[in-house]
UniProtKB/TrEMBL annotation:
Its EC number is 2.3.1.241. This is Lipid A biosynthesis acyltransferase. It catalyses: an alpha-Kdo-(2->4)-alpha-Kdo-(2->6)-lipid IVA + a fatty acyl-[ACP] = an alpha-Kdo-(2->4)-alpha-Kdo-(2->6)-(acyl)-lipid IVA + holo-[ACP]. It is a single-pass membrane protein. One of its GO terms (cellular component) is plasma membrane. A motif (HXXXXD motif) lies at residues 131-136. The lineage of its organism: Bacteria, Pseudomonadati, Pseudomonadota, Gammaproteobacteria, Pseudomonadales. One of its GO terms (biological process) is Kdo2-lipid A biosynthetic process. Pathway: Bacterial outer membrane biogenesis; lipopolysaccharide biosynthesis; Glycolipid biosynthesis; KDO(2)-lipid A biosynthesis; KDO(2)-lipid A from CMP-3-deoxy-D-manno-octulosonate and lipid IV(A): step 3/4. InterPro entries: LipA_acyltrans, Lipid_A_LpxL_LpxP. It is found in: Cell inner membrane. Catalyzes the transfer of an acyl chain from an acyl-[acyl-carrier-protein] (ACP) to a Kdo(2)-lipid IV(A) to form a Kdo(2)-(acyl)-lipid IV(A). The gene is lpxL. CDD domains: LPLAT_LABLAT-like.
Amino acid sequence: MDRPRFRASFLHPRFWLLWLGLGLLWLLVQLPYRVQLVLGRMVGAIMYRGARSRRHIARRNLQLCFPELSDVRREALLKENFASTGIALFEMAMSWWWPRARLQRLAHIEGLEHLQRAQADGQGVILMALHFTTLEIGAALLGQRHTIDGMYREHKNALFDFIQRRGRERHNLDASAIEREDVRAMLKALRAGRAIWYAPDQDYGRKQSLFVPWFGINAATVTATTKFARLGRAQVVPYTQVRLADGSGYRMVIHAPLADFPGESEEADCRRINEWIEDAVRQHPEQYLWAHRRFKTRPEGEPNLYRKLPKKPLSL
């Protein structure tokens, strides 16, 4: 895709409110990092109270995935998850606007040699990431150390799309944004020895998925990881990033490539991927994106796992 360009239409009055919000966010992220962590937790608390539908989805996911926890412990985990989501707003802005040197001080990277070795061998890499709330800043910090192409879906708001792409691509000046549906471009990049950020941990529907267990529940799991690895002749390299509890930044781990992948079948590969993802999520469940309806698509004959919320009564 071409680099994002500023357009005169972005000055139209319909964008003024967004400009105001972005300007306020830019000012806030000039504050010290630890202050932003506190502000993010405050935003998360507001979201917990106000985002009723998302709170319902996240709470239901935690009930399904952690039935062994008491209601009190799950609710505490839910509140901590919303705090992490609130912090993610500031992390997004930091990754877009902080000076590179200031941002880099937060990075604690392990396993970079796995990407460097693949690059030296001219082999493509599927950087298998997860939807942690630290996704945005994790990609930015890693992008400062190694070129990463990314799967991309255009935002409906043209101005926000411009700001987002410009913020992301400043860390990867020679990287490419690949449309999520452009399989041909992705395979071409992998065969050229590129590393591509890819997250297979969400529900993308029945068409390209198999039902395999995730936290003990049959979940629609995309088979694309296997197809991309085989057709792109690429390694699958798991990648995790988490926010450190001591406020010193982020631990990013590039794990060893999956051995003997693809395996004997797409189902076996999907099971292997889901087991790996589940283990990673269990280590930091408060930082995972539980507000996504991971079990939305169900096997034939199985009921919907997300009951609709009753409408709030109108107050007189």
